Amino acid sequence: MNDREHGPRPGPSTGRQDRAFMPHRVFAGLEPPYSDPEQARTVIVPVPYDGTSEWQSGSRHGPQAIIDASQYLELYDLESGHDIYKTGIYTLTDVEPALGSPEDMIERVYQVSKQWIEKEKFIVMLGGEHSLSLGPVRAFKEAFPELSVLQLDAHADLRDEYLGTRYGQACVMRRIVELCPISQVGIRSLSREEMQFLTQSNLRPFYMSDLSSDTSYTSRIVSSLTRDVYITIDADVMDPSIMSAVGLPEPDGITWQQVLQIVQSVARHRRVVGFDLVELCPGAGPRSCAFLLAKLAYQLIGHTVSQVTR
Q: Where would I find the beta strands (DSSP E) of the chain?
């Protein structure tokens, strides 16, 4: 038996006598008190939904793949020198998909997010497709009126309507910019319609070419954001050489270090209230992609959760 996968993690033993059944799989395999919902600062919200995926579906399997991979994390963070798990991380069971329409699913995620925001928790949503991000953004906007959203993504996602819906993953940032300011980073693919909207709205993304040619981009990203920030990270923002397990990979993406550098800088100068990781399609690439996102989630919790004070 692999102790790292099946053995106890930090926290007192659960005292279960019957080991014939696997326990509910939680992020990083934490046990109480570090996974206790009352004590934990962070709540993991897994949402296995990909109802509007276009080319390559499968992101509905992303949340469980990330949680499964997280069992293998080293809980001591070498970079910060901290045991991040000691702030407490509680993992919800999967949010059940609402298959009637993407609007129904977004409303469900909004209600779940609102419930935990009212309990002053730091929310980490694991998708699922990118349309889901509208749910927590709506909830956080109500709690933090001066909210802005930092989007790390290969695609602009600014279409007003696509494939018969205004609430699909290709439209999510168009709906979010109707709620609050956005700052887009890593963009390297968009439609003519989206370019026209950017021009008309005086929005200027940080294109991938900007990140490659301008060493001051992190400070400019921070300056573009309000005091309270929600971060949404589409896995395809990263280069396919390290993140091929996505629905629509785009060449020439950002690196692991660039993602961390951006988030660290934002967390130092702004209050990050929550974040999401979306669009992992586990079947489209190696298992290392799920582990990369599990480690990213863990490190982002370490960089951001201590900044949240209500």
A: 42-47, 76-77, 82-83, 89-91, 122-127, 147-152, 182-187, 206-207, 228-234, 271-278
